[in-house]
Design a protein that fits this description.
heterodimer; A: mainly beta; Phage tail protein beta-alpha-beta fold; Immunoglobulin-like; Maltoporin, Chain A; 3 domains; 22-stranded antiparallel beta barrel; 5-stranded mixed beta sheet; 5% helix; 53% strand; B: mainly beta; 11-stranded mixed beta sheet; 4 helices; 25 strands; globular
């Protein structure tokens, strides 16, 4: 796989950056995206007159991807070589030498210097160990090296803490010059300085440091010891993606790193992957109760949720309150709102790719947390020098959360518990082969009343193999198994006790290849195949005197195979296109028995003509069709781009739900003869602009989508244990459109973002449907049609250790159906509904606060601790989830139900060891 | 740890609130759709039909009774019976209708509005096996056992409760407003009967159980301290066989009013009807008329069977005994809001009575909350 080196203009850290005192003020501007090093050199040579000398084989796999804006050559080279062992030296005659491991000396003692003769310097430094500590050290003049005639000398050494441990990331700079470097992970630095007296500052990241007066007489060693404790940077904020939002070709993508999610105020202190994504424009939800989310007007089942190649069908805990990902084991997430990468498919709206950790390669580390609701623990690290792992678990203490819900109502006798477990292992066979293994399991059990227990489980397992055929060609193979099931166990009385079960599983295989054809084309192609097995529902009497008759809806099986090819084509420096085609073959397979109905009338029991039985593996109903993913980007200048895309998608697995938010008892259904695949297309256009040296990112995106073959249901449909669901289904069409504006400040003490989304999402019964149409066949608002949505997130670094953050969210209330009349029936007032979703709940407004406090960073402590505490819904506003009328003693009474109606304080203790 | 845990629970419970009273703005259009409720009885018992019109959500009256309609039951092969108005929107047809044919209901509201039901096939059901009750810490639960058969799968179960109750005080006297004096009361007014149609709608699908048996079907619950079981209680359970469409209708009615607005409540559905306006078929009509033979069973429960049973009635919490001096008899008793209970007994030397004990009307006259008439079925 080719390696791209993304850069920032000025890196804050690097490995033993070596600069010399020469004038390298020649500055370069331009866009170098996906350049080979040779091509980069060609351009720089032409523009600057410098000449490069290097062994091409050394630089074969170095790719350049950067946007330079008035940068010096050393700045660019430092960025490109960051993370490699390559060093460079710049000579006075504009010659640049690139060498591995050690830079060439650019000046030699006069005695050695002959015209046109360059030699590798292998001589040992003249070492005179120098340590210093305290005020004395600051005011002493330290002599380094022994007298030479040289004009420059390399001084190197170590920066150590009080405990004699290396300190990473200390800036070493020479006052009055721009000579500077940063200590590496061993605390080492090296710097070429002119001989003579200097004041050298050793500054910790963002903080104070030590100052030394040195008299450099020749090459030598100079070590420094720090007095106080310091902040260890275990997690770096990765800043080299700064220009990505402008330069990458696809639009409508959102990525979020775990350290950002940790700053967001969370419900009951649980860092939540999905709720974090909901702070991004274009992502909405029906209510606070559920992590089911709606992307650009799509239903919640139209999101593909992946966790390290596993498809998670129910990514939630506590009937939807929290997402089922352990924050300690998640690296970050990527959400594709407008067309997923070509290797993904099968869902109409979006792909949420949750990237789990595979463990660090340095040492075994642990982390965990104790919150109000859960405790979690994760351990990661190397097993040996080729294998790393990450493992973690999370569990809840007890069931008191239910007491907080719908106080005093039917949940009084509730109980709930859940857990999730993760294991990810990565093993490097050799530099061409790498194997990954992922296992994930989550489970929930809860009850609202004493006698009915609900439970659900996800089980996922997969193995991946990445193979590098050569530097330009790589392949990835994943095989895995995903399963989801839920059950209801009721034992209110022995004669009616039953167990209900739903289950689904999929075997999947994905083989994709990446081929770097040349600098202009990067091809992706491959195939993916999923074998679905679904048990739509079974009812079993519990042992004993139960009279319940066993019942079972016949299982469903289908094979979905896709082949895909895509090309990331750089047409010019400014214009790039990422075009892909995915062709999907779907077969609904036997064994199954299918009803046939008379043409032109409603499928009912009465219009059923016959049933046909199909044998195992027989194709009952095939569907096939293409999906297009075309995205284009035009760079207006270094900081501005315009992007457009057309994406189409097909979905063959559907959630059967007639509740507004996802419920843990929603079942899934495969496309069959009656349930056609859902089809969708989206057109998007966006303008992206970075300002103030990429410190501020702005974007404006507009989109239009339409969807067909969405599922709706006839009035009063029963979805569970329905053997003829086709009699209940009402095909619908959907359309949505909107605009998303975002302003984001990525760095600095005050950082955060503000977004505004205007979006509409509407549905109507397919005009081709016979019989009853919702709202007379006109377009009506979907459950999540919330036109205006404003979100503000701010984080302020008060000190290095204390950073408060604020989250504020306003949105239009969601549509609901309210009755238009009442009547009396069977001794009670009852309600009459007419138009669906013609009313709205009051507007939503919520402010949350959180403060993250890092503990002391003394290294000798056993564990690094941090606290996060805050208040969810500071204003205590009741944000209704629903409004409704229900009879109380025969008389209608209006209510509104709010989920988190009061300020909810939270506190979480996190630790690392 | 455990203690800490409880503190957490307590603080958090008090912090999160949820359900609040709320009156959303709704367009106040009075549609006045026709509502038809009833069952054409083939077996013994009367055919009872109730006609009303819908009102707006915030209207103080639940429904507008339609009392001046002409209602007929028509047999598909033979017969046409008029269902007689009883007033207040109720209509009744006494006597059993012949079996073996389909029926329909016809309603004339006026010359221009004629409503008809579809032809409905009568349904028959086996008898209810038994009605029984269970006493628990939470109160008393009434259950039914029954069964379906090949002809009957879906049932609608409803219940009618009747109970005898007593006022906290006995009023032996009353105010004679003609002569402006207190006179002994002719009939006692401290024991009454009250009744209530259970608002629970219970639907069963007998095809889901072995031999179509229905066992331990919960009909209703009487909460602890309820007045219903203070003396004697009776409940009549009625089981009506219904067809699949009627089952769906009742299911929607039930879900729309009982399972709504919660986290996982289904979205409201539109109720259908098996009646339509002949002149304007698109006009919404509410109601599903059934035809068949319903089954009824009644049981009685005495307080002694559920003891200990302490009655607590919120309406009687205000009850206290007043002492009224003779000079204030007219002022206090003549309005009728306070009833004379009995004379205050003499404690000192003989003389004129020192006054009367009195109590608020609701505390001594049970007719405020019930009727003195003993129902015909009542067995003491």
């Amino acid at each position: 796989m080719s390696r791209y080196v993304f850069i920032v203009i000025l890196l804050l850290f690097g490995f033993q950056m070596k600069l010399n005192a020469q004038d390298q003020s020649k500055r370069i501007s331009g866009t170098f995206l996906g350049y080979s090093f040779e091509r980069f050199v060609e351009r720089v040579e032409k523009e600057t007159g410098y000449q490069f000398y290097f062994d091409p084989s050394l630089l074969e796999d170095v790719n350049v991807s950067l946007v330079a804006e008035d940068n010096t050559i050393p700045q660019l080279l430092n960025s490109i070589f960051e993370g490699t062992n390559l060093k460079y030296s710049i000579f006075e005659d504009k010659k640049i030498f690139i060498t591995p491991e050690k830079a060439m000396r650019t000046r030699f003692p006069n005695a050695f210097l002959k015209a046109d003769e360059v030699k590798r310097d292998t001589s040992e430094h003249n070492q005179e160990e120098t340590y210093g500590i305290g005020a004395f050290a600051q005011n002493t003049v330290w002599k380094v090296g022994s007298q030479t005639d040289a004009e420059v000398a390399e001084i190197s050494g170590k920066v150590l803490s009080e405990e004699n441990l290396p300190v990473i990331g200390v800036t070493v700079s020479v006052r009055g010059s721009d000579l500077r470097t940063i200590t590496d992970e061993n605390g080492k630095y090296a710097l070429i300085v002119p001989t003579g007296r200097h004041v050298i500052d050793f500054n910790k990241f963002g903080g104070d440091g030590e100052r030394r007066n040195v008299d450099v007489q020749g090459p030598g060693s100079f070590n420094v010891q720090f007095e106080e404790d310091y902040i260890t940077l275990n997690e770096y904020t990765v800043t080299y993606k700064d220009t990505e939002n402008v330069s990458k070709v696809s639009s409508g993508t959102v990525s979020m790193q775990m350290n950002t999610m940790k700053k967001l105020p969370a419900v009951l202190g649980e860092v939540d992957v999905i709720r974090s994504v909901m702070t991004m424009p274009g992502v909405q939800s029906v209510g606070e109760a559920s992590v089911g989310f709606n992307v650009r007007g799509g239903a919640a089942d139209q999101n593909l949720i992946m966790f390290n190649d596993a498809t998670i069908y129910n990514p939630s805990h506590l009937f939807g309150m929290f997402s089922a990902f352990n924050s300690d084991l998640v690296e970050g997430v990527e959400l594709y709102k407008a067309g997923a990468p070509i290797e993904y498919g099968g869902r109409l709206s979006s792909v949420l790719d949750v990237k789990g950790k595979y463990g660090n390669s340095e040492k075994i580390k642990g982390s965990g947390g104790i919150g109000l609701l859960t405790s979690r623990l994760a351990i990661d690290g190397p097993l040996n020098d080729k294998t790393t792992f990450a493992v973690g678990a999370r569990t809840t203490y007890s069931d008191w959360i239910l007491n907080l819900l719908e106080e005093g109502t039917e949940f009084k006798n509730g109980a709930a518990s859940f857990y999730d477990l993760n294991l990810s292992v990565k093993h490097t066979l050799n530099d061409k082969n790498e194997i990954r293994l992922n296992a994930y399991s989550s489970g929930d059990e809860f009850r609202f009343t004493a006698d009915t227990t609900f439970s659900y489980q996800n089980r996922n397992f997969n193995i991946g193999w990445n193979h590098q055929f050569n530097d330009d060609f790589s392949g990835d193979l994943v095989v895995g198994y995903d399963a989801y099931e839920f059950g209801i166990e009721s034992n209110s009385d022995p004669s009616n006790a039953y167990d209900f079960g739903f289950g689904m599983s999929q075997f999947h295989l994905r083989n994709n290849f990446g081929y770097d054809l040349n600098n202009k084309h990067f091809l992706k192609f491959g195939l993916s195949s999923i074998l679905y097995d679904l048990s739509p529902g079974s009812l079993e009497p519990q042992a004993g005197e139960s009279l319940v008759l066993p019942d079972r809806v016949q299982s469903e099986r289908a094979l979905e195979t896709s082949i895909f090819i895509g090309d990331e084509w750089e047409i010019s420096n400014k214009f790039s296109v990422d075009a892909g085609l995915r062709y999907v073959f779907y077969q609904f397979l036997g064994p199954n028995t299918v009803s046939e109905y008379q043409e032109g009338v409603l499928p009912t029991e009465g219009s059923e003509i016959r049933t046909t039985s199909y044998g195992s593996g027989e194709i009952i109903q095939p569907y096939h069709g293409p999906e297009f993913r075309v995205n284009a980007r035009y760079l207006v200048n270094n900081t501005t781009s315009i992007k457009a895309g057309i994406n189409t998608s097909r979905q063959h697995i559907h959630m059967l739900t007639n509740t507004s938010s996802i419920s843990p008892t929603d079942t899934w259904k495969l496309s069959d003869r009656f349930v056609r695949p859902q089809l969708g297309q989206q057109y998007s256009l966006g303008i992206f602009k970075n300002m103030r040296k990429n410190l501020i990112e702005t974007s404006l995106e507009v989109y239009y989508r339409d969807m067909s073959n969405l599922l709706d249901y006839r009035s009063g449909a029963t979805l569970i244990l329905n053997k003829n669901i086709e009699r209940e289904i009402l095909r619908s069409q959907g359309r949505s459109y909107g605009a998303e504006v975002m302003l984001k400040k990525t760095e600095g003490r005050l950082n955060g973002w503000v977004t505004y989304t205007y979006s509409r999402s509407q549905l109507r019964t397919d005009p081709g449907e016979i019989g009853q149409k919702i709202n007379n066949g006109n377009f009506y608002s979907s459950n999540f049609d919330q036109p205006h949505d404003v979100l503000l997130f701010l984080n302020y670094e008060l000190t290095k250790r204390i950073s408060p953050s604020l989250n504020a969210n306003y949105s239009t209330g969601r549509p609901i159906t309210l009755p238009v009349a009442k009547f009396e029936y069977q001794g009670s007032e009852r309600v009459f509904f007419s138009e669906r979703n013609a009313h709205r709940v009051p507007d939503f407004f919520r402010i949350d606060l959180a403060v993250n406090v890092e503990g002391s960073h003394k290294l000798k402590k056993l564990a690094h601790a941090s606290w996060s505490f805050g208040v969810y819904n500071v204003l205590g506003r009741s944000n209704p989830y629903s409004a409704y009328f229900t009879p109380v003693n025969g008389v209608l009474q209006g209510y509104q139900l709010s989920i988190f109606a009061r300020p909810i304080p939270f506190v979480t203790y996190n630790f690392k060891f | 740890m455990r203690k800490f845990h409880y503190i957490l629970i307590l603080t958090l419970i008090s912090l999160i609130g949820c359900r609040e009273l709320y009156e959303p703005e709704i367009l106040e259009i009075d549609f006045g759709y026709l509502v038809v409720e009833g069952f054409i009885e083939i077996g013994p018992g009367d055919t009872e039909i109730r006609l009303s019109q819908t009102t707006t959500i915030y209207d103080s009256i639940s429904s507008v009774p339609v009392s001046n309609a002409e209602v007929f039951v028509e047999g598909q092969q033979q017969g046409n019976w008029r269902v007689m108005p009883l007033g207040n929107g109720n209509y009744s047809l006494a006597g059993a209708l012949p079996e073996g044919q389909n029926y329909r209901l016809i309603v004339y509201l006026d010359d221009t509005r004629k409503y008809e039901s579809e032809w409905i096939e009568p349904l028959y059901a086996p008898e209810i096996d038994q009605i029984f009750f269970e006493r628990s810490d939470d109160g008393v639960t009434i259950y039914a056992d029954g069964k379906g058969d090949v002809n009957s799968q879906y049932f609608l179960w409803t219940a009618n409760e009747t109970w005898r109750f007593q006022t906290p005080f006995i009023s032996g006297f009353e105010w004679d407003s003609f002569n402006n004096r207190i006179v002994p009361r002719g009939t006692s007014v401290n024991f009454c009967y009250s009744s209530q149609v259970s608002q629970n709608l219970i639907l069963t699908d007998a095809a889901k159980t072995q031999n179509r048996e229905i066992k331990n079907l919960e009909i209703l619950r009487i909460p602890i301290n309820s007045e219903k079981l203070g003396w004697k209680y009776s409940v009549e359970v009625r089981q009506r066989p219904i067809d699949a469409r009627a089952h769906q209708f009742w299911d929607i009615i039930k879900r729309n009013s009982e399972d709504i607005g919660g986290l996982f409540s289904p979205m409201p559905s539109i109720v259908e009807s098996n009646l339509y306006n002949v002149n304007n078929p698109s006009e919404p009509v509410i109601g599903f008329v059934g035809v068949g033979k319903s089954e009824r069973k009644r049981i009685f429960i005495e307080t002694a069977e559920v003891r200990p049973w302490v009655v607590s009635v919120p309406e009687y919490e205000i009850c206290e005994i007043l002492e009224v001096e003779p000079s204030r008899y007219q002022e206090i008793f003549s309005g009728g809001r306070v009833l004379p209970l009995q004379e205050i007994p003499l404690t000192g030397p003989p003389g004129p009575p020192p006054g009367f004990y009195g109590a608020r009307r609701v505390c001594a006259d049970c007719r405020e909350r019930g009727t003195l008439n003993k129902p015909a079925f009542w067995v003491d």
